[in-house]
Amino acid sequence: MSSDTSIAAAPAASAAPARTERAVVPHSRQYHAWLAARRREKLQIVAAQIGLVVAFLVVWEVAPRMHWVNPMLTSYPSAIWQAFVQMVRGGELGNHIVVTLVEVVVSFLLAMVLGTAVAILLWMSPRLERVLDPFLVVLNALPKIALVPIFYIWLGAEGSIYAVAVAVALFITILMLYTGFRQSDPNKIKLARTFGATRRQILAKVVLPSNVHTFIATLKANAGLSLVGVIVGEFQASKAGLGYLIVYGSQIFRMDMVMAAIVILGLMSLAIYALIQWAEFRITRPAKRGG
Amino acid sequence: MTTPKIEFRDVGLRYFTPKGETQALADISFTVAQGEFVSIVGQSGCGKSTLLSLLAGLIRPTDGEVLIDGVPVTGPSPQVGFMLQQDSLFEWRTIAENCVLGPEIRGDDRFEARVRAEGLLKRYGLGDFLDSKPSELSGGMRQRAALARTMCLRPDVLLLDEPFSALDFQTRLSIADEIGGIIRNEGKTAILVTHDIPEAIAMADRVIVLSRRPGRIKSIHPIAFPSHGDRRPGSFAARDAVEFPSYFKTVWEELEVHVE
Ligand SMILES: Nc1ncnc2c1ncn2[C@@H]1O[C@H](COP(=O)(O)OP(=O)(O)O)[C@@H](O)[C@H]1O
Ligand SMILES: [Mg+2]
């Protein structure tokens, strides 16, 4: 169960006895007690979390039914569940999810690829960076949502969704990556230079490999931002997608539909986050040794 | 007359920054013979690292000339190996992969470089750690791995910029002894920069004292240990030699003069 504890002896150490002097002590009674206490604490925390969710759902269900609050405004979990089932039966929900998901993934990838390319270009050419710096700062500070009407006029309904999502994620990608590149260890760069490395070699051998964690942090930030951009784009104009469902539901005053869409949105961002977490684990996990 | 391995001819170096000019080095002239080990001491900020950067071809002198084998230095060359204060091992590479960084950047044959790297690491007592990550090594082992990385390009001039200063005192003594021995055995020409006077004396054939900024050569002290016969003692033994205290006193006083 608790494979995440650092207590477990590293398997690498057993391969080469001389490597570490981490003493293997037979587990004492106190140690077992300590482990048990830890497990208990963990269980208690999970129980509290589940309790919190249940309590929230119960209050949400009971309050509108008892007319403490207006059910038209808040809806309630069982109604949301019914709306959900109904939409699944009607077959339209799957379509809305897929539409939004495709938009998110495509704009996420676009922002990542474009942003990485620009960040590399800026690092390769410090002069270009100095020229572009003020513009990047302004573009990053500008609320991209203000551009939605313009994108809509220029690119139409479909195109404007991608444009907003990319715009929201792109500049932060550039700035995060470039800042990470700039902070690469100057000693490692000097070392590479003593070997006669060109700027391109310094990029490939020092800057990029030492910024894997920056890249992952950027991935995480970007996933959330692309989702925001896509939903905002769908608000403006769309015929499908979870953003559309939210706007449509609120227009016909179907709070259950709106809430169902929001819950799915929450689950979707959770799934994306988990995916990135998994990717991070795969990338940063120490490579298995041959032999 | 044979050409010296290294020659500084009236070298001066000024750094230009928006705030103004910094004269880091002035009127530096000296030569180092093939196979000689020279230590350079001076207070921090007197231009010691600058002097090595000039030799490594990382910066050009603003005055004068720096020559290796009688040829002006124009850029980094595989002939010159540089050991920095930090071992700067890449934590995402194994020790052996770190070791072949130089050949990799130079575009040398990868297989040959790998064989050479493994040979060096084994000689330096790191044979069991070829596939380890740097974080699994102790400070002294890391510094030996850094030496192997430097040696992998087969330089004949070695520049050492306070390479032991990040180590604890005991490791520092033994690693200095070990690395000093390796460099001598392989007949490399070496320049060691340090502000540790005993270390400077124990390892070198000559000690050059630099003045405060702008760094000028204040004095040069040949080091010899006749009490040990013809063979020069290792840096460990040198510290116990009867001649040692007087060298220490001389160099100490040379540096001391500058303290206000
Ligand atoms: N890149 C640089 N730009 C401007 N000044 C520098 C630079 N590098 C070093 N200096 C200055 O030159 C002087 C000598 O530096 P350095 O060679 O690093 O001294 P040391 O290694 O003896 O401590 C210092 O005063 C330092 O501030
Ligand atoms: Mg220095």
Automatic annotation (TrEMBL), chain A:
Membrane topology: Multi-pass membrane protein
TM ranges: 45-63, 97-123, 135-155, 161-181, 225-246, 258-276
Protein name according to UniProt: ABC transporter permease
Domain ABC transmembrane type-1 per the UniProt entry, residue ranges: 97-276
Pfam family, one: BPD_transp_1
Alphabetical list of Gene3D superfamilies matching this protein: MetI-like
SUPFAM superfamilies: MetI-like
Cell location: Cell membrane
Family classification: Belongs to the binding-protein-dependent transport system permease family.
Keywords, in A-Z order: Cell membrane, Membrane, Transmembrane, Transmembrane helix, Transport
Major subcellular location class: membrane
From TrEMBL, chain B:
Top-rank lineage group of the source organism: Bacteria
Pfam families given in the database record: ABC_tran
InterPro entries: AAA+_ATPase (IPR003593), ABC_transporter-like_ATP-bd (IPR003439), ABC_transporter-like_CS (IPR017871), ABC_transporter_ATP-bind (IPR050166), P-loop_NTPase (IPR027417)
SMART domains on file: AAA (SM00382)
Ranges for domain ABC transporter: 6-237
Keyword Transmembrane: no
GO molecular function: ATP binding
Gene3D superfamilies: P-loop containing nucleotide triphosphate hydrolases
UniProt keywords, alphabetically: ATP-binding, Nucleotide-binding, Transport
Family (UniProt): Belongs to the ABC transporter superfamily.
Protein name: ABC transporter ATP-binding protein
Species this chain originates from: Rhodoplanes tepidamans (Rhodoplanes cryptolactis)
